Amino acid sequence: MRINDVILRTVTKIVVFIILTFGVYLFLSGHNTPGGGFIGGLVLASAFVLLYLSSDIESVQKSLPLDFKMVAAFGVLLATSTGFGSLLLGVPFLSQTFAYFDLPIFGKTELTTVTIFEAGVALAVVGVVVTIILSISEDE
Amino acid sequence: MNNIIVLPLILPIMVGVLLVFLRPYIRLQRIISLLTMIGVACISVYILNRIQTEGIMRLDFGGWKPPFGILFVADSFSALLVLTASVVTAICLIYAFSSIGERHERMFFYPFILFLVAGVNGSFLTGDLFNLFVCFEVMLLASYVLVTLGGEKAQLRESIKYVVINILSSWFFLVALAYLYGTVGTLNMAHISERVAEAGQGPLLTTVSILFLIVFSLKAGLLLFFWLPGSYSAPPTVIAALFGALLTKVGIYALFRTFTLIFYHEPSITHNLIGIMAGITLIVGCMGAVAYKDVRQIASYNVVIAVGFMLIGLAVGTQTSLEGSIYYIIHDMIAKAMLFLLVGTMIVLTGVTKFDQMSGLIRNYPLFSWMFFVVTCSLAGIPPLSGFVGKVLVGQGAIENGSYVLVALAFISSVVVLYSLLRIFLNSIFGETIISPEDELPLKKGLLIPIVLLGIGTISLGLEAEVLSSYVSDAANTLFNPSIYIDAVLSGNK
């Protein structure tokens, strides 16, 4: 029995984009202000969960063919390899570095290795949260 | 640059994650996970030898100097435990190859074993009390998965207790950490030790230390072991062996670290309490070991007895007794893994779990049966096997210190261990065989080889105690003189 909730589905279509944008904003702001990979990841995950709630699992998986277990694994791999990279460069484990670049649209931008680490954290959080929600919902 | 000491943590994690992507290729997963553990073992041998020449090694993550950053510290004690844990895991993996079954292997069995080892190694190596909590959690989360993997009724029943008790104790751990941080304002273990020494260990800090004692006792199975026998006998053999060998040792390591490095000022309160708890653990563990007929229960209660024994070394607190405990921890990791593998294999071969229903295994499986005899002697502490050195040193230290009650309890418990295992030996290994030649299940080489490897381990650990003694006495020396550890962490040399 599925409830075809028109209001929820219509609102979701717009709100998901707001949540996704907000998640990315939180993720990027985390370098110097509150936010970061974990929080950004949680917000991003909530967008996916909302999608699953408003439409059914099958149709979301058709348009978003991701195995979230693999997303989580990839996130952990990304995060740990940035730490591991410092071993190859001969500096202490988990060392970070940053530099300023002049990018075409953004102008002078600070690029750091921490962002890659945080991206890994965000992916891991998204993967784990969605996997947990999906496995609970699959339970009959 | 000491980046090498992070490898025992990060290698298993990264390889474990890689194995998630290699889910369908079981053979590849087996090879990679075994190679990783052998690699970690080799790395820890290298670390151990470097500590002997260069002193305690430390690694400040990201270059943040202590006490501001987080760090890993490797002294002989932690390196010895990392080495033993990695070797035991590698051997248990060989056993898993031919016992665990494809269903488990497809459900990320190997990645979780590697995560478990990463948590265990991380707990041994961290120099920061909060990171100890984090590594505990890494280890526990992996163990929650491993204890429930397979989803059988008994497993689920026991794992609920296991998960609840561990979440509760983790919560206590966090509260204790908050109290300690509120009191001394740091989480770096060496720095805490320094500040506790400066401020004096007053009633408040002693109370906090008792909170830590409760937390680690729950994890180690010291007195508060009511959850242990059930949850260690429910999962598949190889997982039970890993749990029996590794998990309680992490709690014991944490007890040794906190009560030799940080809270060593009020031994009349804390160390006496540990002594009383260890004594009661020994008595109740002995009762359990002779009360049951289920071989897995007997093996689990043997874990409990060993926990009590090791902590007598800490309660007594002389350098000799600490040395004895370190020997005993190393010995026990190997011997307990072996005991659990043997007991699990007996159940597979006979199909029954009580020792009075088995008989005459020695006719069918002679080498296997003699291995059971080896582990019995080793756990009872009969020379020249590995349990002997540890028992003698703990006893010697306790007599030096005048703790005669603990000495008596320790040696009576050895006799009970011998009795409880000899009962299995006489009933199920000797006697008329009940398995006719045509019903005889062949004992797979993959099951026998790891048991024999562990048997060789316990024999050579006893015979080659001399080789080990320089490392162990260095480890005990560091534990006994906390200033060595503190200097190594807080001095600016790099």
Question: Would you summarize the structure shown here?
Answer:
Chain A has 140 residues and is mostly helical. Helix content of chain A is 69%, strand content 9%. Chain A has one domain (6-138).
Order of neighbouring strands in the sheet with most strands of chain B: 1-2
Helix-strand category of chain A: mainly alpha
For the CA atoms, what is the radius of gyration of chain A? 18 Å
Task: Characterize the largest beta sheet of chain B: strand count, sense, and whether it forms a barrel.
Answer: 2 strands, antiparallel
Largest sheet of chain A: 2 strands, antiparallel
Detailed description of the structure:
The complex is a heterodimer of chains A (about 140) and B (about 500). Chain A has helices at about 5-30, 35-55, 55-65, 70-90, 115-140; strands spanning about 100-105, 105-110. The relative contact order of chain A is 0.17. The mean pLDDT of chain A is about 85. Chain A is built from five helices and two strands, in the order H-H-H-H-E-E-H. Chain A is globular and about 55 Å long. Chain A has one domain. With about 140 residues, chain A is mainly alpha-helical. Chain A has a two-stranded antiparallel ribbon with strand order 1-2. Helices cover about 70% and strands about 10% of the residues of chain A. In chain A, helix 2 packs parallel to helix 5 (about 115-140). Chain B has 21 helices and two strands. In chain B, helix 14 runs antiparallel to helix 17 (about 385-400) and helix 14 (about 320-350) runs antiparallel to helix 19 (about 445-465). Chain B is globular. Chain B is an all-alpha fold. Chain B has a domain at about 265-465. A two-stranded antiparallel ribbon of chain B has the order 1-2. At the A-B interface, helix 4 of A face helix 1 of B.
